[in-house]
Prior knowledge:
eight-stranded antiparallel beta sheet, alpha+beta, Jelly Rolls, 325 residues, 3 domains, Phage tail protein beta-alpha-beta fold, single chain, seven-stranded mixed beta sheet
Amino acid sequence: MNVTPTPDQEQAALAWLSLLHDQPSSGDQATFSQWLRADPAHIEAYSQAQVLWELSEVPARKLADEEAFALQGYLNAMNTSKRSRVVRWSGALAMAACLVVMVSMGAGWQPSRWVDDLGADYVTAPGEVKTVTLADKSQVTLDADSAIAVDFSQGERHIQLRRGAGFFSVTHTGESFVVEAGSGEARVLGTQFEVRLQPAGAQVTVLSGRVGVTPSKHGQLQILAAGQQVAYADGIADQMHGVDSESRLAWRDGWLNYYKAPLADVVKDLERYYPGRILLLNDEMGAKRVSGSFPSKDPQAVLNALQAVLGFEQHTVLGRMIVVR
């Protein structure tokens, strides 16, 4: 007889899994045995929790550590009179707590987003692409899972890209329009360009006009024209190069285009459009190159198509997490 655990039972199973991996007492073990025998659905829920644990132990531990760090940053940023407490999560407990959170909140609840969104003026959820008009009539199209803060009060038009990516269609007013991203910034008077956050830096792609990019406060200025792109990380810029801007910016119309891109990069992009988590566990598979044009609105269909070509395994766990290996 097949039984389907309820969300509460799934959460309880993950909580038990955490406890049993973190030096349980004999009383805990006895209580767990009673819980397990109380309902066949408990056995199924615990079995699913073990599968989830085994499939995603390494990335889940990493995610949990990142979220704990981000949560502490969020708490520190809050203006409160209460004494701050340092967040400390043991390895197994941190992993299970992260998984419990992802399951209970549909995998969309992340403390790191709290930090990004704290003070943000415009935010998009996973899978949502939105265009907003600013006070100067400039327009910003935010990619899925993105956030910006806007400040026009200091004699220049200043945007801070806090998460994700934005495409900027800037109205010429005579004042500089500056997009801060990571350690660097992109500065224009009026043009069309994209800024996309990357690990330790950002990438700037110009569709029309000219954009001045500096990788750090005292970094060397590079002037990009239409069809050019540059990336920087840790305050150091790569050499700018030509790109097919229209193809690179097709996400605005619901398409993700790649030419010999690592599968790991494609999966990372797909996760911004997926309401849960997509975890890639196979580094060798992640390095394989992918070319093609894929609809961003159906990440599962894209993964299925890539699986047919590359031959990786994928598992859907608890209906909210896709594990690729």
